[in-house]
Amino acid sequence: MKLLLLGTAAAEGWPAAYCDCPVCSHARTTGGKNLRSRSGALIDDDLKIDHSPDTILHMQQARRSLAKVRSIVFTHEHADHLFATELKRTTNLPRDLPPQPNIAIYANTRVLNLIQNAFPNPLDFRLDLKPPLNPFHPVTLTDNETNLLPLPATHCEDALLFRITRHGKSLFYGHDSGLYKTETLEALGQAGPLDLALFDCTHTTRTDVAFKHHLSIATALQMIEKLRSNGAITPNTRLIATHFSPHSGATSHDHLQSLLLPHNITPAHDGLLIDI
Predict the structure, then answer these.
(1) 217-229 and 182-191 helices cross at what angle (nearest 10)?
(2) Residue-range domain boundaries for the chain
(3) Residue 208: its pLDDT value, please?
(4) CA distances from 255 to 159, 251, 261 (A)
(5) Sign of the torsion formed by the C-alpha atoms of 172, 205, 155 and 74
(6) In sequence order, what DSSP letters do the residues of 10-65 get, joined into one string?
(7) pLDDT per residue over 187-244, tens digit each?
(8) What pLDDT, on a 0 to 100 scale, did the predictor assign at position 210?
(9) Do 204 and 248 meet the contact criterion of CB atoms below 8 Å apart?
(10) pLDDT, tens digit, for every residue of 81-93?
(11) What is the pLDDT at residue 273?
(12) Are 8 and 272 in contact (CB under 8 A)?
């Protein structure tokens, strides 16, 4: 299983569009891994996680396509994760191309309603809306090879985290969320060891905010320790931090590396490909 992280910034992006602070200015000047777009990921070319307003840019930068995507899984309805009307791009294809397979859409009720409102006839846009995801109720995707365990996030109403299993490998897609709910931690422990765990790190070094909806490095470490204690994280689990804000203390990708690598956590960057 291969996970491609397409966007690794919080909602404002890094640099933020309306900001000329030293951090955002430095990112524009230096470019490279200091330029971060909004959230999105791709697993093995056929499973998309979230569909942000930056999706087309993601695929251009990665020099990849979404032509093989057969399922899209949504974490929640915030605009940096769901730009519903952009799903019409699924039909921007040559007119002489034979009809393409539908794309299964897995999400909570709130996300499904937004998509349904944007597309009264979703199948006209190849969007096959599946029954709403419910926390702790596992789902096998249409490929019959991928198992999805939705878990409640500490974020907006009904936001979800995911434990994804495919070909004997498992990953935890752990953002957006503040401190994980007890039942989420317990379910991850009961499900067994993870090969990869990915954590929200929006607030990086900040300590002056209430961590209700996102994590910092310090609070991510707290969650990692809890998952170590219940066996979900082992010495073989790869740890990734993502969803960074430019206004939270860390000043660059190099700075993030200096803060995270001592804890054996890799700071994600746009285009990071992980072979699990």
Answers:
(1) 50
(2) 2-14+24-89+100-269
(3) 75
(4) 30, 6, 10
(5) negative
(6) -TTTBTTTT--SHHHHHHHHH-GGG-B-B-EEEETTTEEE-B-TTHHHHHHHHT--
(7) 999 999 999 999 999 999 988 766 678 899 999 999 999 999 999 999 999 999 999 9
(8) 62
(9) yes
(10) 999 999 999 999 9
(11) 98
(12) yes
Q: In Å, how far are 83, 213, 262 from 51, measured between CA atoms?
A: 6, 20, 32
In terms of CATH architecture, what is 2-14+24-89+100-269? 4-Layer Sandwich (3.60)
Mean confidence (pLDDT) of the chain: 96
| Cβ(184)–Cβ(178) below 8 Å | no
Q: Dihedrals φ, ψ of 275, to 5°?
A: -95, 110
Bridge pairing between strands 169-174 and 160-166: antiparallel
Structure tokens at 56: 């087309």
For 76, the token pair is: 């929640």
Do 128 and 107 meet the contact criterion of CB atoms below 8 Å apart? no
Tokens representing 225? 């320790």
**CA 13 to the chain's CA centroid:** 14
**Which residue ranges in the chain fall short of pLDDT 50?**
none
d(CA 12, CA 80): 8
What CA–CA distance (Å, rounded) separates 136 from 162? Answer: 10
State how far the Cα of 120 lies from the Cα of 93, in Å rounded to an integer. 21
Please tell me the predicted confidence (pLDDT) of residue 167.
Answer: 94
